[in-house]
C-alpha cells in the first residue's frame, strides 16, 4: 500500500473513531479515551538553532507515545531560517493543526519552515511506533549537524 493510500486510510479510521466518540460523548469510558481531539495536550518545546548561530535542534532527541496528543512548540531565535523536516514521522501521525502567526493550518503536514525569530505550534497525535530522523534541509545545515531523532514508543 503506498504512503498516500495508507495515510488516507488512517485519516478515515481516525475520523470514524472521532465521530463515534463525539456521538457517544462521555457515556462510554473506553470511547472517551479514544477521542483523540479531546485528550489533554502534552506540551513539548524545541528550539531550532540559537542566537549564537548554532546549527542544532535543542533538544535533538524527541520521544512520544502513540495515541497521546502533543503540542510541539517550535521556536527559531536565530537570524536565519530553519526547517523542521521529519517526513516519515509526519506520515505516521494525525495532525490536528499548526498555528503559525495568525494562521492555523490543518491537514497533512510534512515540513515546517521557521523563518528567523519566529514560532509555531504543531498539535498532533502519533499513530505508529518507530524511530524517525529529523533534520534541517536548509543547504549545509544537515551536514553541519542540524539533525535529530524522533522516537514514538509504546
Radius of gyration: 16 Å
Share of helical residues: 10-25%
Number of helix segments? 3
Question: Termini separation (Å)?
Answer: 24 Å
Biggest sheet strand line-up: 2-1-4-9-6-7
Q: SSE string, helix = H, strand = E?
A: HHEEEEEHEEEEEE
> Which structural class fits the helix and strand makeup?
alpha+beta
Q: How many beta-strand elements?
A: 11
- Unreliable stretches: 8-33
Q: Largest sheet, described in full?
A: 6 strands, mixed
Please, what is the average pLDDT? Answer: 83
Strand content: 35-45%
Q: What would you call the shape?
A: globular
Structure overview:
The protein is 21% helix and 39% strand. The chain is α+β, with helices and mostly antiparallel strands and 154 residues long. β1 (42-48) and β2 (57-58) form a beta hairpin. It has three helices and eleven strands. The protein starts with a helix and ends with a strand. The strands form three sheets. A six-stranded mixed beta sheet has the order 2-1-4-9-6-7.
What brief labels describe this structure?
154 residues, 6-stranded mixed beta sheet, 11 strands, 39% strand, globular
Summarize the structure.
This protein has 154 residues and is α+β, with helices and mostly antiparallel strands. It has helices at 3-24, 29-34, 87-91, and strands at 42-48, 57-58, 61-64, 70-76, 82-85, 93-100, 103-105, 111-114, 118-126, 130-135, 147-152. The strands form three sheets. Strands 2-1-4-9-6-7 form a six-stranded mixed beta sheet. A three-stranded mixed beta sheet has the order 3-11-10. A two-stranded antiparallel sheet has the order 5-8.
Amino acid at each position: 500500500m503506498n504512503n498516500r493510500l495508507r495515510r488516507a486510510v488512517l485519516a478515515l479510521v481516525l475520523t470514524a473513531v472521532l465521530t463515534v466518540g463525539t456521538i457517544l460523548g462521555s457515556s462510554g469510558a473506553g470511547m472517551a479515551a479514544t477521542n483523540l481531539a479531546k485528550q489533554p495536550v502534552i506540551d513539548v518545546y524545541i528550539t531550532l538553532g540559537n542566537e549564537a548561530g548554532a546549527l542544532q535542534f535543542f533538544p535533538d532527541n524527541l520521544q512520544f507515545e502513540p495515541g497521546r496528543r502533543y503540542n510541539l512548540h517550535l521556536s527559531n531565535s536565530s537570524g536565519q531560517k530553519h526547517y523542521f523536516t521529519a517526513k516519515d514521522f509526519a506520515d505516521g501521525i494525525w495532525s490536528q493543526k499548526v498555528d503559525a502567526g495568525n494562521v492555523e493550518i490543518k491537514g497533512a503536514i510534512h515540513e515546517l519552515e521557521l523563518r528567523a525569530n519566529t514560532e509555531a505550534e504543531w498539535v498532533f497525535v502519533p499513530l505508529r511506533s518507530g524511530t524517525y530522523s529529523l533534520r534541517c534541509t536548509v543547504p549545509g545545515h544537515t551536514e553541519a549537524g542540524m539533525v535529530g531523532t524522533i522516537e514514538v514508543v509504546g
